[in-house]
Amino acid sequence: MDREIVFKKVAEITSNRFKVPVDKVTDDLNFTNDLGADFIDMAGFIVELEDEFGDVFTSENTENISDVSDLVDVIIRDTDPKSKKHISKK
């Protein structure tokens, strides 16, 4: 999976979910410290991400996600290439 495409889609979803301009979503944007996200916020966010990327997330791979870069890395590493979900290049 192409990192740039994944990042752009994650940035779009992050922007919509947390009401932050998409150009402010960077690799080092921290969900808790910068966006004030709590457990409930992140749970809803993960559901939105799974709608886009498929069942990528587990309790093991989400516990170390603190910023956008961590999130993109998990998606790239753990997305099943045979999954019916795909990333549009919009």
UniProtKB/TrEMBL annotation:
Gene3D superfamilies: ACP-like. Keywords: Cytoplasm, Fatty acid biosynthesis, Fatty acid metabolism, Lipid biosynthesis, Lipid metabolism, Phosphopantetheine, Phosphoprotein. One of its GO terms (cellular component) is cytoplasm. It comes from Fructilactobacillus fructivorans. Residues 1-79 form the Carrier domain. Signal peptide: none annotated. Coiled coil: none annotated. It comes from the Bacteria. 4'-phosphopantetheine is transferred from CoA to a specific serine of apo-ACP by AcpS. This modification is essential for activity because fatty acids are bound in thioester linkage to the sulfhydryl of the prosthetic group. It is found in: Cytoplasm. GO terms for molecular function: acyl carrier activity. Pfam families: PP-binding (PF00550). Carrier of the growing fatty acid chain in fatty acid biosynthesis. SUPFAM superfamilies: ACP-like. Belongs to the acyl carrier protein (ACP) family. This is Acyl carrier protein. Pathway: Lipid metabolism; fatty acid biosynthesis.
